[in-house]
Amino acid sequence: MKMSQVVSKVVVWSLAGAIGAVASPSVVRADCPSLPAIQRAAERAGGLSSPTDPRRRARLAALLPTVSVRGGQRLAWSEPWNGRIVDELDRAQSIEVRLTWRLDRLVFRDDEPRIASEHLAQRRARTTLRQEVAAAYFRWRRAELQRGAGDDAELDADAAFAEVDALTLGWLREACE
After folding, report:
1. Does residue 116 sit in helix, strand or coil?
2. Which of 10, 11, 24, 6 lies closest to 141, judged by CA?
3. What is d(CA 78, CA 75) in angstroms, rounded to the nearest whole number?
4. CB neighbours (10 Å) of residue 176?
5. What is the pLDDT of residues 86-140, one digit of tens each?
6. At what angle do helices 112-145 and 151-167 cross, to 10 degrees?
7. Looking at the DSSP assignment, which residues form a beta bridge with residue 60?
8. Closest to 94 measured CA to CA, from 120, 117, 73, 79
9. Contact 166/21 with Cβ under 8 angstroms?
10. Quick check: 54 and 115 in contact, CB under 8 A?
11. How far is CA 146 from CA 78, 135, 141, in A?
12. What is the dihedral of CA 88, 91, 92, 93, to 10 degrees?
């Protein structure tokens, strides 16, 4: 066994211990979640589960108006020539509400290239996470098949389970119990 494998198992064990996944189920049971369910749980745990296209949301937001409110107060008076008595006092208050629709944003928004690049980065991160979860899942399944062949096999199975469980922030352990 290489030193890097030992170090990675220690890291996985410490991470698994931090979230409470100490041991895996003795056998991969039929009621344990499937790979797609585990991948979805890992996406939720990683904050990557938003399936909506942000460009669509930004364009639909253009249907909502921009609201501006302005208030004012005016006071005026007139004095007669002698300057001693105020003859007339005029007071007015006003409130102005404006609703402005920017319908040009239904076609294109200024921040759309930035939103598109962020969406693309999120899709790439989701794909990378799904691949990482799949690799860890199949390491766990292979280790479970070899369980019982010795102490190293038991440790490998527990470490592989802890790795998958850590990617889902403990969801897998709860789902398999």
Report:
1. helix
2. 24
3. 11
4. 15
5. 567 788 999 999 999 988 888 887 888 888 888 888 889 999 999 999 999 999 9
6. 160
7. none
8. 73
9. yes
10. yes
11. 100, 17, 9
12. 180
Q: State how far the Cα of 173 lies from the Cα of 177, in Å rounded to an integer.
A: 6
pLDDT at site 54: 74
Q: Are 12 and 163 in contact (CB under 8 A)?
A: yes
Mean pLDDT of the chain: 79
User: Which run of H or of E encompasses 69?
Assistant: strand 66-78
Q: CA-CA distance, 1 to 3, in Å (whole number)? A: 7
Structure tokens at 140: 């766990």
- Could you report the per-residue pLDDT of 126-175, keeping only the tens digit for each? 999 999 999 999 999 888 888 878 788 888 888 999 999 999 999 998 88
